[in-house]
Amino acid sequence: MSFYQDFADKTAIEAWHARERQPYRHFELKPLAPTLGAEIRGLDLSRPLGAQQTDELRRAMGEYLVLAFRGQQLDGEQHKAFARQFGRLHRHVLAKDRVVAGGTDDPEILAWQTGPQSRFTAGDAWHHDVSCDAAPIWGSFLRVTRLPPGGGGDTAFANMELAYESLSEPYKRFLQGLTALHDGAQAWTAGYGARPAPGKAFPASEHPVVATHPHTGRKFLFVNEAFTSHIVQLGRDESSAVLQQLYAHVRRHLAFQVRVHWEPGTLLFWDNWATQHHAVWDYFPQERWGERVSVCLEEGPRA
């Protein structure tokens, strides 16, 4: 790594730490890592939250991007009710295909089961969830209903705001104004072997490579190796070179990442625009089951 990239990394991390953060009055918050993530205790998510609690959680999400709630006992309806306090529930196009695996036929719950017969596990690559949608989901809420008895199965997250801020200024200027195509067929057909319903096609949408968050006004990288097929304004070789460099930039910067360790009663809530995540499949052939609920907002990422 060159001196200049080292300097950009350090400057971005220093600016992240310098942000003013007020204390929280309605729950306990403990950072999980210096640049990403926080653990929340002192809330019962099985009950509706008060306005002050939800306001503080929205502020915590803007500041930490990934929130891990410990000690929760939720069923599917309580899981959805908590998520619904932050937006409109998303219906995943593959939810119906996961009924047998997860044991639910609820279209607002995406369930999966990974075990000794699995050829892959959901999310085993750095990605934003369902970035192929025209209005990509903002918040994801995940609980693991069966943990591997031998440990493992962490979920890793990467801070896409820091990933952007750590780039050199000329590179940032180059990326501004570029858009990329996010294709569901690349992630679900090429990745999982899933097929759309007869007469239908998986969604594909064009989004800015560098997006602005409508909540915070901060910029973040919005391309990922699971869904992004190419940058529209560049030739094939140019697009591939830029995307591969950005993917490597996300993977190798451990200073921008956190690994969340699961324990019974954990629910994860994360900003799906300003982070990417990766399900760590290090527990084969043991089993790991989970259910995800996600929410959409009226206003999405903008250029």
TrEMBL record:
Keyword Lipid metabolism assigned: no
Coiled-coil regions, chain positions: none
Alphabetized SUPFAM superfamilies for the sequence: Clavaminate synthase-like (SSF51197)
Tagged with keyword Ubl conjugation: no
Keywords for the protein's UniProt record, in alphabetical order: Dioxygenase, Iron, Metal-binding, Oxidoreductase
One example GO MF annotation: dioxygenase activity
Domain called TauD/TfdA-like: residue spans: 29-293
Family: Belongs to the TfdA dioxygenase family.
Name the UniProt record assigns to this protein: TauD/TfdA family dioxygenase
Species the sequence originates in: Azohydromonas lata
